[in-house]
Design a protein that fits this description.
With 371 residues, this protein is mostly helical. It is built from 15 helices and two strands.
Length: 371
């Protein structure tokens, strides 16, 4: 693993400068070729076997989160705070697989950013959330009023600070009343966003129909090949995002420059649970496509290579022992994280250069998005 850490240290500085200078990553473009090896029912498979179950779990988790934060406000105490924090952890874990679905309903109305404002390279969330708490802005303590504010004060990172950040100890007493009501407003909006996203994927909705029944006259997907393009693009974006926006910033160029506070969910020590859940989601999504059923032996070998890298990345992250705040600078855990980053890079390269070709897609980058 040490050699992988060396590889990362050579490249992470350049990646941080190029990838994290902007919130948006480059957009992949793809074209389905004639004779593509793609299941005709790929949209139905992904909807039924992946999207709907994970969206349902996320909706259930955010509903419980709202319930537990409301209970904390009604009867503050150590036990109530522990329950709210546990509900938050479950929400983050269920968000991991859902966040891989970066197309369709999750990208409409900026839902993704409202749920998970990341990367936040300038610390906007911390500054704005602290401002809301210091000023006790009553508008932010009501779901309708909160919706009118910056996305930085509305999502999971904002709620993490409320529940785990400095001053969160006031939540066990009446002195944290405003903080608690603000957290409940965030939780209520998260629950609504989860329900709205799940509803947009439900059978019979315009998006679900377009994805599961592509047709020449559809404005979204004219063929199963175009559905496959969407899914492969989502996988590629998720792989790049997990590595370049979630792991590498905290890893830094060296142990001395490592900073776990640049990782998502470090305060709640959920960083590796979250990224691991994302990677597990990528594995499940890839399996749900049914690509393996259409590929020849060589193609299945390529698919297995992608899955191999993803599984090893997941397992490496699961093996991290230290708290997220310090793990990136702890030698053994740093090597595990570096190994996971290399594995994610390998999976992304194989996906874009080999697996896409094997199933009949031509991948590239949109020149309008820069290099």
């Amino acid at each position: 693993m040490a050699s992988h850490a060396t590889d990362i240290s050579k490249t992470s500085g350049r990646l941080l400068a190029s990838v994290l200078a902007a919130v948006c990553l480059p957009t992949l473009t793809a074209i389905a070729q004639d004779g593509a090896r793609i299941p005709s029912d790929i949209g139905t498979r992904v909807t039924q076997d992946y999207a709907n179950p994970h969206l349902s779990a996320f909706s259930e988790a955010t509903g419980a989160l709202q319930e537990k934060t409301e209970a904390l406000c009604s009867a503050p105490g150590e036990g109530a705070l522990d329950n709210a924090r546990a509900a938050f952890a479950e929400t983050v874990r269920t968000w991991g697989p859902v966040s891989v679905l970066r197309f369709g309903p999750l990208t409409q109305e900026n839902r993704f950013e409202h749920i998970f404002f990341w990367p936040d390279t300038r610390g906007v969330t911390l500054r704005q959330v602290q401002g809301v708490l210091a000023g006790e802005d009553e508008q932010a303590a009501k779901p309708a009023g909160l919706k009118e504010k910056s996305v930085a004060v509305q999502g999971l990172p904002a709620l993490e600070f409320v529940l785990f950040g400095s001053g969160s100890e006031t939540l066990v007493s009446g002195s944290g009343d405003f903080r608690c009501r603000y957290g409940t407003a965030i939780a209520a909006n998260l629950s609504q966003l989860a329900n709205d996203t799940a509803a947009a994927w439900a059978p019979g909705t315009p998006f679900s129909t377009a994805l599961t029944q592509p047709s020449a006259g559809s404005a979204l997907y004219r063929s199963s090949g175009e559905v496959a393009v969407e899914i492969v693009k989502a996988l590629g974006t998720s792989l790049q995002f997990a590595r370049d926006a979630e792991l590498l910033p905290a890893l830094g160029d060296s142990r001395e420059k490592a900073n776990g506070r640049r990782a998502p969910f470090w305060r709640s020590d959920l960083t590796f649970d979250f990224v691991g859940a994302q990677v597990e989601g990528m594995i499940e999504l890839l399996n749900a496509t049914g690509f393996g059923e259409e590929l020849d032996d060589n193609g299945r070998g390529i698919l297995d290579s992608v899955l191999f890298d993803l599984e090893h990345a997941r397992d490496a992250l699961a093996g991290v022992d230290a708290p997220a705040e310090t793990a990136f600078g702890t030698e053994e855990d740093r090597n595990r994280i570096a190994y996971a980053a290399v594995a994610l890079q390998g999976a992304n390269r194989t996906l874009g250069e080999q697996l896409s070709a094997a199933i009949g897609l031509t991948m590239g980058f949109n020149a309008l998005d820069g290099d």
